[in-house]
Amino acid sequence: xxxxxxxxxxxxxxxxxxxxxxxxxxxxxxxxxxxxxxxxxxxxxxxxxxxxxxxxxxxxxxxxxxxxxxxxxxxxxxxxxxxxxxxxxxxxxxxxxxxxxxxxxxxxxxxxxxxxxxxxxxxxxxxxxxxxxxxxxxxxxxxxxxxxxxxxxxxxx
Length: 157
Hints:
Blueprint: E1 2-13, E2 17-20, E3 23-26, E4 30-31, H1 39-51, H2 57-60, H3 74-86, E5 89-99, H4 109-120, E6 127-132, H5 138-141, E7 145-156
Parallel strand pairs: 5-6
Antiparallel strand pairs: 1-4, 1-7, 2-3, 5-7
Helix pairs in contact: 1-3, 3-4
């Protein structure tokens, strides 16, 4: 088995929604990013790539590459799902924490779990999504941005 961890953060900017876990969530702001800024999927990608010892999301989908401008981050997860198969692994489980004051994650958590499970070709019971705040402390507490952390366990297929 292999374990990986990932972290991502994006600042809020203009917009009317954020992408979280492959789900469009209405919000008073958008996220500043080269792709769609989905911190949940970016943290997950880094955790998966880390567990495979294949670097990070920037190595495989660099922001300097115009192909990824505005890209749907589910594309990244699907590509990494193929890498898991190529290396003889499958996801045992993923545990993801979203850190923000807003938007509320709870109402969207199940849809996020379903999207991620579909992209990784596993049961939804292997995906955990939870959220926390920083009690108004720091950049997330001041509602300047959003962050996510992910931990994954890979097992031999």
